[in-house]
Design goal:
The chain is of the alpha/beta class and 492 residues long. It contains 13 helices and 15 strands. The strands form four sheets. It has a seven-stranded parallel sheet, with helices on both faces. It has a four-stranded antiparallel sheet with strand order 2-3-1-4, with helices on both faces. It is elongated. The protein starts with a helix and ends with a helix.
């Protein structure tokens, strides 16, 4: 018995020494590791995207992940637990144990940075956030079988300058008189609505009783038709709600948000296209002009490329998923590669029966080689892009690809500046909106029209009606999915 006890003690000491040596060796590697440059990190990202891999961080080395974190705000997101379990409404004992073990790894590895290290665990998504400073921490976490992904979530230096304030505009534009017609009580119907038979569909449905969730840059408090006059004209009995989840704070672990007010203009435009009232003020009407609108300010612009926006979008998705009244979620925002915590949130919202409609992508000189962007690239979303009015030709800045589900006509072939008229940033102003963004918002509005005809329908039943109303149904076009939606046919 004494011999067995001695052997066990000896084995324990050997294992302990081995683990200690491994940890010390990893720390030595970290101390000797040279930080990779932003240029080197971006070169890796470029290479992966050009291979068709949008989940770029999944193939990154520990050195790339660590360097990317150090070049930003030192924040990493760690998806934990079983490979195909993205969220937990009630944590299991094993998941709680995993959280404790991963936290201990970071705390032990980062012991010289204790005062600077912070942790945050999402309430329902299986994701944690840490500040890290040591390469050793990344290496130790990557060895774990219960780590689904590890991402430098704050890294926003890829095409960052080119994407700055993307999609933002608060301009008041003059609308060409040929780009609208007037209907009672005195509302402007954008020119492209008739192409999709939206006004004819209003004879059967106006979206009444359906709530659309919008995740974007918020709503302007200075646009009365999306505020105090949301029930103007022929619109009645509907409501608009405004929330903010964009974490606009230097301290990333803070729960402080910057409120629901739009500081960009994009969210206001998208909200208007979805559900602005059929007003009597000679302003553009929304597709589902009697639908409810719940707008979340989850981003600062249309690009989800930093921790504050990625967490903001994830939190907004989770909040909308938990609302039983929300049927449709419209996302005219995205990023060119996969974001783990947003993907988890999409999975969560999808599990709750939400129809998530996402923009296929808008080109810049640095992203025009990418096909359908994230999250429209996910199978859980409905991907939409915009085309011009001269046949199936994508708009001048729109993306196309096999992942696209539907198209919306939103650009004059004769003049790329003439797109879809919508409410402007302030009361009494108007503007043109373009790209796959406006196509997405219009599709969300059409989905609301269809759902309002029978609110007890499931997401799949509504999606089937949209598909059957597409130009190419029952086939799919290799670039444009089921094509243009006939709203009248869809509501019938």
């Amino acid at each position: 018995m004494k011999k067995i006890t001695s052997l066990l003690i000896g084995l324990f000491l050997v294992l302990s020494c081995s683990q200690e040596e491994t940890f010390e060796e990893t720390q030595q590697d970290s101390n000797s590791q040279q930080l990779l440059s932003i240029k080197e990190i971006n070169s890796f990202i470029d290479s992966e995207l050009k291979k068709g891999n949008q989940n770029v961080w999944s193939t990154a080395s520990a050195e790339i992940l660590w360097s990317a974190a150090m070049h930003s705000d030192q924040v990493i997101s760690v998806g934990f637990g079983d490979k195909n379990k993205y969220f937990s409404e009630n944590r299991s004992a094993q998941e709680i144990h995993t959280i404790k073990e991963l936290s201990a790894i970071v705390e032990n590895s980062e012991e010289t940075h204790t005062s600077e290290t912070h942790k945050f665990v999402d309430e329902k998504l299986n994701v944690m956030y840490f500040t890290v400073y040591e390469l050793a921490t990344i290496k130790l976490l990557l060895k774990r079988n219960d780590v689904r992904y590890l991402e430098p979530i704050g890294y926003a230096s890829y095409a960052n300058e080119q994407q700055k304030s993307a999609g933002c505009s608060q301009d008041n534009q003059t609308i060409n008189s040929n780009d609208f017609r007037v209907v009672s009580p005195n509302a402007r119907v954008p020119w492209n609505y008739d192409i999709h038979n939206i006004p004819d569909a209003w004879g059967l449905s106006t979206g009444k009783g359906i709530t659309v969730g919008l995740i974007d840059t918020g709503l302007s408090p200075n646009q009365a038709l999306l505020g105090s006059k949301f029930n103007d004209g022929a619109s009645s009995g509907k409501r608009v709600e405004r929330f903010g989840t964009f974490v606009d704070s230097f301290w990333w672990w803070s729960r402080t948000t910057d409120g629901p007010d739009d500081k960009c203009g994009h969210g206001t435009q998208m909200g208007a296209v979805i559900a602005s009232p059929r007003n009597d003020e000679f302003m553009p009407v929304g597709v589902a002009y009697n639908a409810n609108l719940v707008a979340y300010r989850g981003t600062g612009d249309v690009v989800i490329n930093g921790y504050h926006e990625q967490r903001g979008v994830s939190n907004a998705l989770r909040a909308l998923a938990d609302r039983s009244d929300v049927k449709v979620i419209s996302m005219s925002i995205g990023w060119i590669f996969t974001i783990g915590n947003v993907r988890d949130a999409i999975k969560y919202a999808h599990s709750k029966g939400k129809m998530i409609i996402a923009a296929g992508g808008t080109s810049t000189p640095f992203t025009n080689f990418v096909g359908v962007i994230f999250p429209a690239s996910m199978s859980e979303t409905v991907a939409v892009t915009g085309i011009s009015d001269n046949g199936y030709k994508k708009c001048n800045i729109c993306h196309e690809g096999s992942r696209i589900d539907f198209t919306l006509v939103m650009q004059r072939a004769s003049d790329a500046r003439r797109n879809v008229p919508a409410l402007g940033f302030t009361t009494g102003s108007q503007t043109y909106v373009s790209g796959s963004s406006v196509a997405t918002a219009m599709t969300a509005g059409i989905a609301a029209l269809v759902w309002a005809r029978n609110p007890s329908m499931t997401r799949n039943q509504v999606l089937d009606k949209l598909r059957r109303a597409g130009d190419f149904y029952p086939n799919r076009n290799s670039k444009f999915g089921y094509g243009n939606i006939d709203a009248l046919k869809a509501v019938q």
